[in-house]
Design brief:
about 475 residues; alpha/beta; Rossmann fold; 2 domains; six-stranded parallel β-sheet; 17 helices; about 35% helix; about 10% strand; globular; disordered N terminus; glycosyltransferase; golgi apparatus; transferase; signal-anchor
Length: about 475
C-alpha cells in the first residue's frame, strides 16, 4: 500500500533557493565534464583471465614497445600459439613434401641454408654471400613470423596493439597432406579448424571478430579454397570465422578483398641497408648481353601450351638475343643459381603464368635487375598493389605487357616488341626495377628489431604499414556493428 504524503502547506517552500540552484548547476557541470572525458577514452580491454594474458606475453622480450617514430600507425601483437600450429610442423620438415626434405629450406628461421659454398658463390660479390640463402618459395609463413618477432613495431601488450598477427603455418599444415595418397578433406582441414577454434576463444579476436587480425599464407590462395571434399587443397579460407581476417598470400584471389598479395620469398635476405645498396650497384653495373631470357618448364600436356610458344620464340631469336632455361623435373628449384645467372645476363625476362597466375620467377627476375615481361594482368598488376606501382600507366615504369593472343596469332614477336623499345627507355625501366628491390625482399631477422635500417623498408615493413592502414580504415566498420 502506497504511503500518502500531503502537499506542503506553503507552496513557496517547494521552490529551490538560489544556493541550491547554484549547487545543482555546479554538480551538473562536473558531471558534464566527466562524461565528456569518458567519451574520448579508448574502449576498455576485453575481459580475460590474467593467466591467459601472462601466457601470451611470457615469451616476449621486454625490449619491445619502444617509442619508434616509424610506428606512428600503431603496434602489432604476435600471438603465442600452441606449438602444434607452427613449431611442431617445423619439426616434421622431412615429411612435409613427398619429393624432397624441406629441412634445409626451413633452416635459419625459414631462410634456408646459406649460399656460401653453393653454386651461387660464383655469382655473388664476396661481401654479400652472408645475405643469400637457398630459400623455398613456400617458406613465407616461417620467414614473416620470425621477422615480426623482432620487428620494431611489435608490442608485448595486446591492449596497446592496433593489429594482431596469427603465426599459423597453414601452408605447411595443409601442404603435408596434398600429395598423400590416403589423405581426406578432413585431414587437410583438421589443423585449420583447430586453429580457428583456439582463435575464436581469444578476447582480442572476439572484440573485433577478426577485423584487426592478419595471417601470412605460404601457399597460393587456391590451395585453401577447396570446393568439394574430393577436390584439391584445404578449405581454410571458406571456413566460418575466417572471413574478416586479412590474409597476406603469395597469390591472392582478385575477387576477395581480404586477400592481399605479397612477394614470393627469393634467396636474397639482406642484413642491413648497406647490403641492399651494394646489391643494387652490383646488378645495375652488370653486363647484360642478352635482350631477354626465359626460365620455365613446358607443359606438353596442355593444348596450346604458352610456355612452349615462348621457348620457341627464344630459340628463334638465337642465343645471342635470348637465353632459355628448361626447369623441368625441379631443376630450377634445386639449383636457383641457374635462374639468377640467366636473369642477371638479360635486360628483360619473360614471365608467363605458371601452374597458377603468379610465379616466384617474377621476383627472382626483378631482384636480378631485369625488367619483367608479362602476358596476364593477374600475374602482377592485380596481385601486389602494396608493392608494385599500378594504375595510371605506372606499370610501364617497371614492366612490359604483351598481348598473348597477338603473340599466338603471329601478329608480333617478343623479340620485335622488346627490340623496338628505345635504349634510354630500357635504362629508365631497369633503374626503376633496381630502385624497387628493397620492398620486394625479406630482410634477415635481427635481435635489434631495426630491420634494414637507414630509412629503408623491406617487404615486412611494407606489410606492417599496409596492415595498420587497413585496420584504421576498417575500425569504424567493425565498431559500428
Amino acid at each position: 500500500m502506497a504511503t500518502y504524503r500531503p502537499e506542503h502547506p506553503n507552496p513557496a517552500a517547494r521552490r529551490p533557493r538560489p544556493v541550491v540552484l547554484l549547487m545543482l548547476a555546479f554538480f551538473a557541470l562536473q558531471l558534464l565534464i566527466f562524461l565528456s572525458f569518458r567519451a574520448v577514452r579508448p574502449p576498455p580491454a576485453p575481459a580475460s583471465s590474467s593467466a591467459a594474458a601472462a601466457a601470451d606475453t611470457a615469451s616476449v622480450p621486454a625490449r619491445r614497445d619502444g617509442n619508434d617514430s616509424s610506428c606512428g600507425g600503431g603496434l602489432v601483437y604476435v600471438y603465442d600459439l600452441p606449438a602444434a600450429f607452427n613449431e611442431d610442423l617445423l619439426r616434421m620438415c622431412d615429411k612435409l613434401a613427398p619429393m624432397y626434405s624441406l629441412c634445409p629450406y626451413l633452416a635459419n628461421d625459414g631462410l634456408g641454408l646459406p649460399a656460401g659454398g653453393t653454386n651461387l658463390s660464383s655469382l655473388l660479390p664476396r661481401e654479400l654471400l652472408g645475405s643469400w640463402y637457398a630459400s623455398d618459395q613456400f617458406a613465407l609463413e616461417h620467414i614473416v613470423h620470425r621477422r615480426l618477432l623482432s620487428h620494431r613495431c611489435r608490442t608485448a601488450d595486446p591492449a596497446r596493439s592496433a593489429a594482431f598477427f596469427v603465426p599459423f603455418y597453414a601452408g605447411l599444415a595443409v601442404g603435408r597432406h596434398l600429395w598423400a595418397a590416403n589423405a581426406t578433406g578432413a585431414d587437410r582441414d583438421r589443423d585449420c579448424a583447430a586453429l580457428l577454434s583456439w582463435l575464436h576463444a581469444q578476447p582480442w579476436y572476439r572484440r573485433s571478430r577478426g577485423w584487426d587480425h592478419f595471417i601470412a599464407l605460404g601457399r597460393i590462395t587456391w590451395d585453401f579454397r577447396r570446393t568439394s571434399d574430393d577436390a584439391w587443397g584445404g578449405s581454410f579460407l571458406t571456413m566460418p570465422g575466417v572471413a574478416n581476417i586479412t590474409r597476406l598470400v603469395i597469390e591472392r584471389d582478385p575477387w576477395d578483398d581480404m586477400d592481399v598479395g605479397v612477394p614470393y620469398p627469393t634467396g636474397f635476405h639482406p642484413r642491413a641497408a648497406a647490403d641492399v645498396r651494394a646489391w643494387q650497384r652490383h646488378v645495375a653495373r652488370r653486363p647484360r648481353p642478352m635482350l631477354f631470357a626465359f626460365a620455365g618448364a613446358p607443359r606438353s600436356a596442355i593444348r596450346g601450351d604458352f610456355r612452349a610458344l615462348l621457348l620457341g620464340e627464344c630459340q628463334a631469336a638465337g642465343p645471342a638475343a635470348c637465353g632459355a632455361l628448361d626447369c623441368a623435373e625441379g631443376r630450377c628449384i634445386r639449383n636457383n643459381a641457374l635462374v639468377m645467372e640467366l636473369f642477371m645476363g638479360a635486360r628483360f625476362c619473360l614471365q608467363p603464368r605458371g601452374d597458377s597466375f603468379t610465379r616466384r620467377s617474377l621476383f627472382d627476375c626483378m631482384v636480378a635487375g631485369a625488367v619483367p615481361v608479362l602476358f596476364w594482368r593477374r600475374s602482377a598488376y592485380r596481385q601486389y598493389g602494396w608493392y608494385l606501382p599500378v594504375g595510371d600507366g605506372r606499370e610501364a615504369e617497371w614492366s612490359v605487357f604483351i598481348d598473348r593472343e597477338k603473340l599466338r596469332a603471329g601478329n608480333l614477336t617478343v623479340r620485335g616488341v622488346l627490340a623496338a623499345i628505345p635504349e634510354p627507355r630500357v635504362r629508365l625501366m631497369r633503374e626503376r626495377v633496381v630502385e624497387m628491390i628493397p620492398r620486394l625482399v625479406y630482410a634477415a631477422a635481427d635481435d635489434g628489431g631495426k630491420g634494414l635500417g637507414g630509412g629503408m623498408d623491406d617487404a615486412v615493413d611494407v606489410m606492417v604499414d599496409g596492415m595498420l592502414r587497413r585496420v584504421a580504415e576498417q575500425r569504424p566498420r567493425w565498431r559500428a556493428t
